[in-house]
Design goal:
single chain, mainly beta
């Protein structure tokens, strides 16, 4: 059975969100030519690879010259590669370098008679300026209606256990040496920030509400939904601050990110909807209205199918994202714990029956049903395999996608209660988290080996991983 589901374009009022600053493409190309790894944040902030920050001034008189060149710099006669304090282009667009005052505050250059291009330009009106930012008195006009305050620093110290006399070091996996783990725990509202191998997190990101879902994007941002909160918080990892709160009409729940399309899918069971967030601008772009309460979302590797379970009816649906959002009924299954799509088949686990059902996607016929380890709770497709995690036996069973047979098993050999198996993007590694024992395990998905089982000070609920980020100071 196929139904066409209604896709509602959200009418976003200016009271809820302001337009993201768009740096002109020729300016971006000019900067990137000198600094290839430059990042352009959606609110307008420009960060060079060494964490040098430039703030853009949008001109009151914009000249669209065919070839962009530097009109002048401060100090004079500098190249962009010299990172001068101000760069004025021939279209009147200005880049102001963030510098430090004598007492360590963030500011921009201060001169007695600022040129017209600096005095008449405007900072992006949705810019979140770095912590402690101050504007020289004779440049106050560049703020326009932008409220200059200090960004809300989320970083808090970790409370170390009193009985810890010596930290137990974990196993270091070379492939993950430049990774940072962001961990939610059932014993804390805060998100723990962890370097692999360390038992105690480095610090935490303070949260007012308990997180529901966390997801890292582009090694720049952490997206967070929380209980009793109708916003999706966007945390900048460079300055550990919330730089946008995307307002939802109802409670947002699970987050799934499609990196290639720069989209996030956010479910809301209360609204019987899935919302689509444009990650370039960090704004809501669509609402997909559903029949049922969405949970346990899964996005196919090619980004064309989004599957979910209706927790009211126990019906499983697939949304064909590339086919006018057609909805396909996969069938009704008891106590679904996880759904994945691989090899044009749908894999469904039942937590209470310890069963794995495998469904042909085209015909919706049952291919086979397998008895699996106790309390199957999560699955991860990888290449030609599906890794099935069971909490009761703390084991991972490996299913060959071609034959749909269990071909191997990894015994985690822990005394805990496993919760998730999480693929680390662009690696052959996965992390298995545990909500009972204070440990996490790292699995090599190519060799089916446990490469590390590391201790932590607190149990892990969920985890997401990002490259280490240079901080804005």
């Amino acid at each position: 059975m196929r139904k066409l589901i209604l896709v509602l374009l959200l009418m976003l009022g200016t009271a809820n969100i302001s337009l993201a600053a768009k740096i002109p493409e020729n300016v971006k190309s000019f900067v990137t030519n000198s600094f290839p790894q430059t990042k352009y944040r959606f609110d307008g902030l420009i960060m060079l690879p060494d964490s040098t920050v430039y703030l853009p001034l949008f001109p009151s008189n914009f000249y669209d010259d065919n070839e962009l060149t530097i009109k002048y710099t401060i100090p004079a006669n500098k190249k962009l590669s010299d990172k001068p304090e101000a760069v004025v282009f021939n279209n009147n667009f200005v880049l102001l370098k963030m510098i430090k005052t004598k007492d360590g505050k963030n500011t921009v250059l201060s001169i007695n008679q600022p040129p017209y291009e600096l005095r008449s330009g405007l900072l992006p009106q949705d810019l979140l300026v770095p912590k402690g930012f101050v504007v020289p008195e004779n440049l106050k006009g560049i703020t326009g209606n932008l409220v200059i305050g200090t960004s809300n620093d989320l970083k808090v110290e970790i409370m170390k256990p009193k009985n810890t006399t010596q930290s137990t070091a974990g196993v270091l996996v070379p492939e993950l040496k430049n990774k940072t783990f962001y961990v939610s725990s059932p014993y804390s509202k805060n998100i723990q920030v962890l370097t692999q191998g360390k038992k105690t997190p480095d610090y935490a990101l303070e949260q007012e509400n308990t997180p529901i879902s966390i997801a890292a994007y582009n090694n720049e941002f952490l997206l967070v939904t929380s209980f009793d909160k109708k916003t999706l918080d966007v945390i900048s990892l460079a300055d550990d601050a919330v730089i946008r709160q995307i307002v939802f009409p109802t409670q947002p729940d699970e987050i799934i990110i499609d990196n290639s399309k720069k989209l996030a899918y956010v479910s809301s069971g209360e609204a019987a909807s899935i919302f689509i967030v444009n990650l370039d601008t960090m704004t809501l772009s669509k609402q997909i209205k559903l029949n049922g309460m969405c949970e346990k979302m899964f996005l196919s590797e090619d980004g064309t199918k989004l599957l979910y379970n209706d927790k009211k009816t126990r019906e499983i649906w697939a949304i064909e994202l590339d086919n006018k959002y057609l909805l396909k009924d996969i069938g009704r299954f008891p106590n679904v714990s996880k759904i994945v799509y691989a090899g044009n088949k749908v894999y469904i686990t039942s937590r209470t029956k310890n069963h794995l059902a495998i469904i042909d996607y085209d015909s919706i016929n049952l291919i086979t049903e397998l008895e699996v380890c106790s309390k199957p709770i999560d699955m991860l497709p990888y290449k030609d395999k599906v890794f099935l995690l069971s909490a009761g036996d703390n084991a991972i069973q490996i299913i060959d996608i071609a034959t749909d047979k269990i071909v191997d098993q990894i015994d985690l050999q822990t005394d805990g209660f496993s919760t998730k198996i999480h693929r680390i993007d662009n690696t052959n590694s996965a992390i298995v988290t545990d909500s009972k024992s204070s440990i996490y395990s790292i699995i090599n998905l190519d060799t089916n080996d446990i490469v590390a089982t590391n201790p932590l000070d607190i149990p892990v609920g969920s985890i997401t991983v990002s490259d280490k980020v240079k901080k804005i100071k």
